[in-house]
Amino acid sequence: MNVGGKLEWTALEYEEKDRGNDWFWALGIIVVASSVASFIYGNFFFGLFLIIGGILVVMFAVKKPDLVFYELNEKGLKIRNRLFPYKNIKAFWVKKDTEKPTLFIKSERAFMPIISMPIDPNLADQVKDFMISGNVPEEEIKEHVSEKIMEYFGF
Protein backbone atom coordinates (compact mmCIF):
# COMPACT_ATOMS: atom_id res chain seq x y z
CA MET A 1 0.00 0.00 0.00
CA ASN A 2 1.17 3.53 -0.75
CA VAL A 3 1.11 5.65 2.41
CA GLY A 4 2.37 9.24 2.39
CA GLY A 5 5.41 8.97 0.15
CA LYS A 6 6.19 5.37 0.85
CA LEU A 7 5.18 2.01 -0.50
CA GLU A 8 4.86 -0.94 1.88
CA TRP A 9 4.16 -4.63 1.37
CA THR A 10 4.82 -7.95 3.01
CA ALA A 11 5.70 -11.29 1.46
CA LEU A 12 6.86 -14.68 2.57
CA GLU A 13 10.62 -15.08 2.88
CA TYR A 14 10.52 -17.86 0.30
CA GLU A 15 7.91 -20.01 -1.39
CA GLU A 16 7.10 -22.95 0.83
CA LYS A 17 7.46 -26.30 -0.92
CA ASP A 18 5.53 -29.44 -0.14
CA ARG A 19 8.13 -32.15 0.34
CA GLY A 20 6.86 -35.68 0.65
CA ASN A 21 8.48 -38.50 2.57
CA ASP A 22 10.20 -39.64 -0.63
CA TRP A 23 12.21 -36.39 -0.74
CA PHE A 24 13.49 -36.92 2.81
CA TRP A 25 14.23 -40.61 2.16
CA ALA A 26 16.19 -39.73 -0.98
CA LEU A 27 18.18 -37.10 0.90
CA GLY A 28 18.88 -39.55 3.74
CA ILE A 29 20.04 -42.29 1.38
CA ILE A 30 22.34 -39.91 -0.50
CA VAL A 31 23.85 -38.51 2.73
CA VAL A 32 24.34 -41.92 4.36
CA ALA A 33 25.81 -43.53 1.23
CA SER A 34 28.15 -40.60 0.60
CA SER A 35 29.34 -40.40 4.19
CA VAL A 36 29.87 -44.19 4.41
CA ALA A 37 31.94 -44.02 1.21
CA SER A 38 33.96 -41.16 2.72
CA PHE A 39 34.62 -43.17 5.89
CA ILE A 40 35.64 -46.25 3.85
CA TYR A 41 38.18 -44.16 1.93
CA GLY A 42 39.49 -42.65 5.16
CA ASN A 43 38.12 -39.16 4.63
CA PHE A 44 36.49 -38.79 8.05
CA PHE A 45 36.17 -35.01 8.01
CA PHE A 46 34.31 -35.01 4.70
CA GLY A 47 32.02 -37.79 5.93
CA LEU A 48 31.26 -35.77 9.07
CA PHE A 49 30.74 -32.67 6.91
CA LEU A 50 28.18 -34.55 4.79
CA ILE A 51 26.26 -35.71 7.86
CA ILE A 52 26.16 -32.22 9.37
CA GLY A 53 25.17 -30.76 5.99
CA GLY A 54 22.36 -33.31 5.63
CA ILE A 55 21.03 -32.46 9.09
CA LEU A 56 21.09 -28.74 8.26
CA VAL A 57 19.27 -29.31 4.96
CA VAL A 58 16.52 -31.21 6.79
CA MET A 59 16.26 -28.43 9.40
CA PHE A 60 15.86 -25.78 6.72
CA ALA A 61 13.43 -27.96 4.74
CA VAL A 62 10.98 -28.21 7.64
CA LYS A 63 11.32 -24.54 8.69
CA LYS A 64 8.30 -22.37 7.90
CA PRO A 65 9.03 -19.13 5.96
CA ASP A 66 8.89 -15.84 7.85
CA LEU A 67 6.78 -12.90 6.75
CA VAL A 68 9.15 -10.16 5.51
CA PHE A 69 8.29 -6.45 5.59
CA TYR A 70 9.39 -4.32 2.60
CA GLU A 71 9.22 -0.56 2.25
CA LEU A 72 10.18 1.87 -0.48
CA ASN A 73 10.50 5.46 0.72
CA GLU A 74 12.38 8.64 -0.14
CA LYS A 75 15.63 7.21 1.32
CA GLY A 76 15.67 3.80 -0.33
CA LEU A 77 14.52 0.21 -0.05
CA LYS A 78 13.99 -1.17 3.43
CA ILE A 79 13.98 -4.96 3.88
CA ARG A 80 12.98 -5.86 7.43
CA ASN A 81 15.12 -3.36 9.37
CA ARG A 82 17.92 -2.95 6.83
CA LEU A 83 17.91 0.09 4.56
CA PHE A 84 19.46 -0.05 1.09
CA PRO A 85 19.86 3.62 0.07
CA TYR A 86 19.13 4.35 -3.58
CA LYS A 87 22.72 5.52 -4.08
CA ASN A 88 23.98 2.04 -3.06
CA ILE A 89 21.69 0.20 -5.47
CA LYS A 90 23.49 -0.20 -8.80
CA ALA A 91 20.43 -1.30 -10.82
CA PHE A 92 16.94 -2.75 -10.53
CA TRP A 93 14.51 -4.80 -12.57
CA VAL A 94 10.81 -5.48 -12.07
CA LYS A 95 9.93 -8.83 -13.59
CA LYS A 96 6.17 -8.83 -14.03
CA ASP A 97 5.65 -11.25 -16.92
CA THR A 98 4.85 -14.16 -14.58
CA GLU A 99 2.18 -14.86 -11.97
CA LYS A 100 4.77 -13.97 -9.31
CA PRO A 101 6.13 -10.47 -9.99
CA THR A 102 9.62 -10.02 -8.58
CA LEU A 103 11.84 -7.03 -7.81
CA PHE A 104 15.54 -7.63 -8.44
CA ILE A 105 18.14 -5.21 -7.16
CA LYS A 106 21.88 -5.24 -7.78
CA SER A 107 23.52 -3.99 -4.60
CA GLU A 108 27.11 -3.11 -3.74
CA ARG A 109 27.47 -6.23 -1.59
CA ALA A 110 30.42 -8.42 -2.54
CA PHE A 111 28.65 -11.64 -1.51
CA MET A 112 25.34 -12.29 -3.29
CA PRO A 113 24.94 -8.83 -4.86
CA ILE A 114 21.60 -9.71 -6.54
CA ILE A 115 18.64 -9.59 -4.16
CA SER A 116 15.22 -10.73 -5.29
CA MET A 117 11.93 -10.12 -3.53
CA PRO A 118 8.35 -10.94 -4.44
CA ILE A 119 5.97 -8.05 -4.99
CA ASP A 120 2.22 -7.80 -5.20
CA PRO A 121 1.05 -7.77 -8.86
CA ASN A 122 -0.94 -4.57 -8.19
CA LEU A 123 2.19 -2.77 -6.92
CA ALA A 124 4.61 -3.66 -9.75
CA ASP A 125 4.25 -0.35 -11.60
CA GLN A 126 4.43 1.70 -8.39
CA VAL A 127 7.60 -0.14 -7.32
CA LYS A 128 9.15 0.65 -10.70
CA ASP A 129 8.17 4.33 -10.38
CA PHE A 130 9.71 4.55 -6.88
CA MET A 131 13.00 3.05 -8.07
CA ILE A 132 13.16 5.37 -11.08
CA SER A 133 12.37 8.39 -8.87
CA GLY A 134 15.32 7.34 -6.69
CA ASN A 135 17.58 7.65 -9.78
CA VAL A 136 18.30 3.92 -9.85
CA PRO A 137 19.11 2.66 -13.35
CA GLU A 138 16.80 0.04 -14.80
CA GLU A 139 18.67 -2.98 -16.13
CA GLU A 140 17.36 -6.44 -16.93
CA ILE A 141 18.43 -8.75 -14.11
CA LYS A 142 17.62 -12.45 -14.05
CA GLU A 143 17.68 -15.17 -11.44
CA HIS A 144 21.03 -16.83 -11.00
CA VAL A 145 21.33 -20.31 -12.52
CA SER A 146 22.04 -21.77 -9.08
CA GLU A 147 18.64 -20.52 -7.83
CA LYS A 148 16.88 -22.27 -10.70
CA ILE A 149 18.80 -25.49 -9.98
CA MET A 150 17.93 -25.31 -6.27
CA GLU A 151 14.28 -24.72 -7.12
CA TYR A 152 14.29 -27.71 -9.47
CA PHE A 153 15.56 -29.98 -6.67
CA GLY A 154 12.93 -28.72 -4.24
CA PHE A 155 14.95 -26.30 -2.12
Describe this structure in words.
The chain has 155 residues and is α+β, with helices and mostly antiparallel strands. It folds into 2 domains: 2-14 and 67-152, Pleckstrin-homology domain (PH domain)/Phosphotyrosine-binding domain (PTB) (PH-domain like, Roll); 21-62. It contains 4 helices and 8 strands. The protein has helices spanning 21-40, 44-62, 124-133, 145-152, and strands at 2-3, 6-12, 67-72, 76-79, 82-85, 89-95, 102-107, 114-118. The strands form 2 sheets. Strands 1-2-3-4-5 form a 5-stranded antiparallel β-sheet, with helices on one face. The protein has a 3-stranded antiparallel β-sheet with strand order 6-7-8, with helices on one face. Strand 7 and strand 8 form a beta hairpin. Helix 1 runs antiparallel to helix 2 (44-62). It starts with a strand and ends with a helix.
Give the mean pLDDT. 86
Helix and strand pattern: EEHHEEEEEEHH
Q: Could you tell me how far the N terminus lies from the C terminus, measured between alpha carbons in angstroms?
A: 30 Å
The CATH top-level class label of the largest domain: Mainly Beta
Report a brief summary of the structure.
The chain is built from four helices and eight strands. With 155 residues, the protein is of the alpha+beta class.
Explain the layout of strands and helices.
Layout: E1 2-3, E2 6-12, H1 21-40, H2 44-62, E3 67-72, E4 76-79, E5 82-85, E6 89-95, E7 102-107, E8 114-118, H3 124-133, H4 145-152
Antiparallel strand pairs: 1-2, 2-3, 3-4, 4-5, 6-7, 7-8
Helix pairs in contact: 1-2
